[in-house]
Design brief:
The structure holds 2 protein chains of 2 kinds. Chain A is an alpha/beta fold. Chain A has a single domain, classed as 2-Layer Sandwich (Beta Polymerase, domain 2). Chain A has a 7-stranded mixed β-sheet with strand order 3-4-5-2-1-7-6. In chain A, a hairpin with a 2-residue loop joins strand 6 and strand 7. Chain B is flat and about 50 Å long. Classes of the chains: A alpha/beta, B mainly alpha. At the A-B interface, helix 1, helix 2, strand 6 and helix 7 of A face helix 2, helix 3 and helix 4 of B.
Chain lengths: 156, 65
Amino acid sequence: MTDFRGLIVALAGGRVRFILVGGVAATIHGSARLTQVVDVVYARDASNLRAVADALAPRGVYLRDAPPGLPFRWDEETLARGLNFTLTTKLGEVDLLGEITGGGGYEALLPHTIVVELYGHAVRCLDLATLIRVKRAAGRPTDLAAIAELEALRDG
Amino acid sequence: MGAILAGRYNGNVTDAVIDAYKKDVDRSLLRINLRLSPEERIEKLAALQRFAAELRRAGLRARPR
């Protein structure tokens, strides 16, 4: 199970610059659908890569669905060499996304965010219109019912 | 939905499928959620996740061995 609070507090408390996207962002906008992953878009500058690495290092980060025992090292160098990471931690599942289809990276998405108060932290979350746009852009058939719900939320 | 599958829909198929799903969105659940704070919505998600996990465990226990 994913400790949503734990992951959000670990990132926000570690001064990571990130934006909640995906199912948790949908929940923040009122979605009633179940998600088990915390999806975030993170800033790719060197200081933020360090912050991400430090925030999650104590939480036992490993590649999700990878066989055990791989020589995986969790640090800012690994983050710099990759872009999008699907990870498992002691707090649950987290996807760290350098970019998302239809939205780009952290800086491009920043104007399309709202700030919500979560567990004592001001946390950025993708706004509803952009969440719908990127889900449409992703073109995943499994997202179509979720898009319908988000559009119902948008239309009131 | 049936019309789409039968190839009789002339518009954007993605929009048509989304519109088909939209008819079944339970807006009463959305209205309840919108009365909560964002943090309360996350906590409700966590509770739903725990409930789903318990249902899965119960289902596994109930399987004949």
